[in-house]
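@channel anyone free to eyeball this complex?
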Amino acid sequence: MRFTIVSPTRLRSSLLMAPALAWLTALMVVPCALVLALAFFRRGIYGGIEYTFTLENFGLVFDPLYAGIFLNSARIAGTATLIAVIIGYAAAYAISAAPRRLQPVFLFFAVLPFWSNYLIRTYAWIVLLNREGLITQLLRWFGYTGEPPSMLYTEGAVIAGLVYNYLPFVILACYAPLSRLNPELAEASRDLGASALTTFRRVILPLTVPGIAAGAVFVFVLSIGNFVTPALLGGGRFQMIGNLVYDQFLTANDWPFGAALAMALIAIMLLVLMTQALLADRAAGRAAEARGDADG
Amino acid sequence: MAERSPGTRRALWFVLSLVFAFLYIPIAVLVALSFNEGGLPTAWSGFSLKWYASLAGNAAILQAALNTLIVALVSTAIATLLGTLLAIGVEMRRQYGKGLEALIFAPMIIPDIVLAIALLSFFSMLNLTMGLHTIILAHVVFNLAFVCSVVRARLKSFDWSIVEASADLGASAITTFRRVTLPVILPAVIAGALLAFTLSVDEFIIAFFTAGAGRASTTLPMQIYAMIRFGITPEINALATIVMAVSITALTLSQRLNRGVIGQ
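replying in thread with the prediction:
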């Protein structure tokens, strides 16, 4: 390839990319760098920012009070992830076992709710769970006469909201590897005398780990930084990291600490993503091995 | 797949029914209640459109709807242009660095709350008066990333040699784009634009942080959030039903266009 041919392509490519990259730099990279810088400054006495270097804000993140909220968020997000993965995997498995022509239809309708507004999907759970909501009505209809159960503004309500909102993505992520699974592998396993459970545990599950990991990461990352669901379904009683960041910026007016919290959130997210990449690599290795064995 | 016993098949259908019930009952209840005369979940008192009529008379909601439309249309237009150009620019390179990939991917995975506070800090440091224009600036960030990824997916199977052929035959770069590249990617561009439009209509957190003080630049999701915090009202059910119908229509359309592309 002659230099004169390569060069105009690269130049044209750069020109085409320039406006979008400039936009992303000015309105994402620079603002995020600003937040990172902000985290190293001190909060002014009257709520402003005092431009002296400090590591206090990061120290405060590990203060028992705030570390507790981090652990709490991780627990709520982790529980929601576990439930979403179990339901989502079961649903994806059932879809992949359905007749071929029905699979795209099922998949479409599984993802459809995901396309409606997040606030509205969360609000739907307020309608279901509030003291005079549908579930209370149903209980009454079955003859229940006691006090209406308090379901809204509980940790359970927050978890239900998170699972409901992110389930479609888990179904999608788990369906991809399940539908690509070579049926001969499962058949071979059965022919060699393995039970259905062993076949699932030793053959199907390991080969579909990448899908599970992708779905789990998605639910966990979006849940741990969530602030709408805890605010609406937890009634502000269950603070999560997202709510904490929100408070620092809009009520407590401690921007440097809010910035440090946001950076901690990003750090957790990167950690989770890196773990997933590692898992995916190992699973890819296993899949290649399985293919090699089948060929050999 | 290996033949399954009738028992296993029944179990699988049972799982599917449960999951679909879980996904659709909450939404169905909401939609049903929006048509309930009495508006309360306690009793069905007859079909009525009165909650929709009462929305039409609510000046705050109409203003919010107008604001949302302005933000969504303008940010979609800018994002579609920039995102498409970006996609073409990236795909015509035979190799690109991981940094570039990460930069394009970042707006799709960065937590909303982080981008929201980052932009709030940035705009207030610049002493920029915030309003609809700052929401638009912010929405273009994630919208262009989504448009770019949809168009790139289409370009993956694009045969760049036809571009070279067109140039060899004497067509200018612009003619080549208009007559060769654009017709191929157009369904993906429209699909990307529809996706961006819906994302912008539905986006709450970033708009909330970059809208500035005052009610003048309240968008529909901000209005819905305020209404939900105030309590359950039949109007929210009606408004929610309309917003859901709009998003689902736009995205179904987007999906169809994209499927058409992949099916070719």
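from a first look: The longest helix of chain B spans residues 59-92.
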